[in-house]
Amino acid sequence: MLPFYWLYRRHLKINKKPSEDFNQDIEQFFSSRYTNWLVFFWAATEALFWFVIPEFLLILLIFMRTRRKRELLFYDIYGTIAGTIVAFAIHLPERLIDKLPYIQPGMVAQVRHWYDLHGLIGLIYQPFSGVPYKVFTHLAPHYHFFIITFLIFAVLVRISRYAIIYGMLASVYPILHRFVYRNYPKLFIIGTIIFSVLLFKVYRSYGPGYQVSLVQLLFG
Asked: Could you give the CA distance from residue 141 to residue 134 in angstroms, rounded to a whole number?
């Protein structure tokens, strides 16, 4: 986030006085065009090598007073499309996929299992499986999936995940907005810690000794 926030602050210093209230400043940053590019590049790199899903940021934005929540979702989708196209163009050798940050050989084996069983429909397991999207994108060219069909499926899967989470959390926005607004930096740090713990837990669960089985396929 820091490069985009720096550009935002630099723009303010040139054009108008920045807000002295940090929480208000952060909320205004999320309402600026710099967040469009932040979400776009975040989603694009997540399809290639970045290990944090863009929804981590977007979910936090649900509780901020910004009217551009749906607009940012579109930039998430644009970034996903751009990153997926680059992944197909790179056609990364399979032996290098598990060399990407926080990718285990078990994750690659699991995605191969889903693709072998269901073909492109195996993408439906991605949103809540804990397996990063980039494993799906980098393996897809090895299965000779048509990129347009893959993109349509990938976008539908991403929208469905965000819609489910957004639908669950949007209803409590009136209650939690003021609390989140006043404590955003603290909550961001807490959220980062929680997400990091979950990331390492998933990463370790696919570590040495991991074997794909029908039970794991059905029940995680």
From this structure: 12
